[in-house]
Amino acid sequence: MPDFSALPSKLPKGKTSIFSVMSSLAREHNAIDLSQGFPNFDTDHTLKELVFKAMKEGHNQYPPMSGIPQLREQLSAKIDHLYGVKYKVDSEITLTAGATGAIYAAITAFVHPGDEVIVFKPAYDSYEPTIKASGGKVIPVQMKGEDFKIDWQEVEEMITASTRMLIITTPHNPSGTVFSKEDMQQLEILLKGTDIILLSDEVYEHIIFDEREHQSASRFPYLAERAIICSSFGKTFHNTGWKMGYCVAPEALMKEIWKIHELTVFCVNHPMQHAFAEYLKTPENYLQLPGFYQQKRDKFLSLLKGSKFTSTPAQGTYYQILNYEKITNEKDTNFARRLTIDHKLASIPLSVFNYKQKDNKQLRFCFAKTDETLEKAAEILHKL
Predict the structure, then answer these.
(1) Which of 339, 319, 313 is nearest to 327 (CA)?
(2) Which pLDDT score is estimated for 127?
(3) 45-56 helix and 270-279 helix, angle to the nearest 10 degrees
(4) Domain Aminotransferase class I/classII large, which positions (predicted)?
């Protein structure tokens, strides 16, 4: 038997995702799971019926590699309506296996050994392993303060002749903050005149609060000309297990993404594409989401009044950061574990996403849950 353990690993320091760790711990100890980002309420019955209808009509074989034309047309129209940019249906829009599939294809297509990729910390945990597996070098930039601001002067200093890509996330996971128009304009100034590719993770574009406006990279001409924008049906329509996402990009960039997409999954779920193509014809299906999730955010924060946790209300996403320094000084990973095992409530410690695992005594809680679940979670948190 060959000793494959001696083979060199592309990710020698790779670890099990914190999401898998905490969700597994929650199941093991029968804890309320506010760790991993998925709703515990059902997706719209109408959307499910549209999937069944597509199956019955025979849409069960391979669709086109980039997705069915009807869905790409709806996405092009949606982006044009919301952000004033018209992406070409035939060459600039691709349906992917979740937004993660789009992110993987984008990084793999363009990052070569020795290339540098700027990543803002705390960062969603799929970016860096993909960069490293492609031979790239992660250049981390830590966001500042409890409001997770970006020092654009620091970013400018990080850009070198080897910078291939810069990755942003807005609304931002895990912090729940949202890039402002001024942030995007600063980024536009930095990237204008360069050949740096912008990977813009916008999976929570429709979950944004307090009358803020999502500043998609597509709105800004010097960003749009270099931007690969990734989004998610799963996050938008409460069906993360369907693993349906998409990306848009200028044709020259999309041609390279297709080369990776074709070799990894080739295409994605056919009947679901027909369902989403029909569902998107009613804009209210996504336009009502800010109010829907803001109500849940506000309820969760209201339930926590009088507890020892402190917080700044999330600006977007369905995550709320809570600071626990008035309760204990223990490391966030240890506190999150103890909270799950002893108190039956699972969360995500934020240090695992920070540069050098900086511990600011913060935990991330997913509030995309039923009112009953949020009430039970708040009851536990009040006892601490």
Answers:
(1) 339
(2) 97
(3) 130
(4) 31-380
